[in-house]
Amino acid sequence: MKIIYITANLPHGSTEAFIVPEITQLMRSGNEVLVVPRSPRGRVVHGQELLKHARREALHSARVLKTAAAVAAAAPGRTAVAARSLLRSRSLKVAVKNLAVVPKALWLADIAVQWRADHIHCHWAGTSATMAMLASKISRVPWSLTLHRWDIVENNLLAAKVRSASFVRFISKDGLRMARTIGIGPENNVRVLSMGVTIPDRVQWRARSKPVVLCPARLADVKGHRFLIEAWRILRDRGVDGELWLAGEGELRPRLEALTDVLRLRGSIKFLGAVPHRELLELYQEGGVSAVVLASIDLGNGYHEGIPVALIEAMSYGLPVVATSAGATVELVLPGTGLLVPPGDPVALANALQTLLQSGTLREQMGDAGRQRVIRGYDVAGVTSALLSAMEAAPTDATPLTSQYAPQST
């Protein structure tokens, strides 16, 4: 198949690394994938290998606007009907955001026609999905949607998008439950299919003289770093030796660094910044980490953790994990496959980490159990096979948009 993958920023930015294995596996399976970021901004951290497969055009570039005008002239009826549907947005602010992506949606429709795409798949249900939905309506190329967490809460024309898409994928049962609470009914095209990871063939266990605990998460409130740092102070006070590495970037970094200084932890906590995805996996493969931790919290109103791909990846390498029971993490970390503690509880977090760090046998047993859990349910090969089957089954329109104008985007 020829599949267009819509992202928010990938291959730019540092927050969508979890999509890379899915795209890569689709290409390994013999499919052509064209990555189209809604807003290609920021440095390339994780998506270097996708650059040659990406069509990166700024939201309102001259090329986008020129192509949009040509598409609107070639298909005025379809364009008007598609754009008019955005006026049903739940607020003026959301409507303005949606209308802002209309030119790029028309440009994307042209890409889909010129490239002869079979399917458009979009991650995130916000304006990225608005762009994909409009492009599908105009080009008549079927589309589908993967929802995560915040984009469900935002509820940007979500019901309309669910009805329009050939299928809608929630990455967790909790996500589907959230959608039900805001009125998304039991549509036949809805399914739960987690994100997958590439399972390494072999993993190695290496005991370290000084344990290293890694937290791979952007520095944002929902990730609960301040509770993790407080837990680390408790461990140091108990005489537990080791280092805590924070792999991620975000708006909270200055505040978290200040907290680290106040608690006199600079010698044992390292801020690594945004670590390229490949380098992170190499660190796991080389046995450079003793355990992985996520201290996520629930911010209320649906703002909580989905099923963290960061944990899935760590478990695939046989690394023991400690996490909180916030959001959908409980769907991944079952008893025996990792340690779960209540969110926002530094003492409980410290106790779990201490239990793990002081028993090499427990770390090895839990790492093995976690790896088997991921092999059974989160292998990207199985995930993409299910996605591909759904894409192939998507109905196609009998009257696709034909190119009545000179190609603008090729």
Structure description:
With 410 residues, the chain is of the alpha/beta class. It folds into two domains: 2-196 and 382-392, 3-Layer(aba) Sandwich (Rossmann fold); 212-377, Glycogen Phosphorylase B (Rossmann fold). It is 42% helix and 13% strand. The protein has 17 helices and twelve strands. A six-stranded parallel sheet has the order 2-1-3-4-5-6, sandwiched between helices. The protein has a six-stranded parallel sheet with strand order 9-8-7-10-11-12, with helices on both faces. Helix 13 crosses helix 16. The longest helix has 18 residues, at 360-377. It is elongated and about 70 Å long. The model is unreliable at 403-410 (pLDDT under 50).
At a glance:
By secondary structure, this protein is of the alpha/beta class.
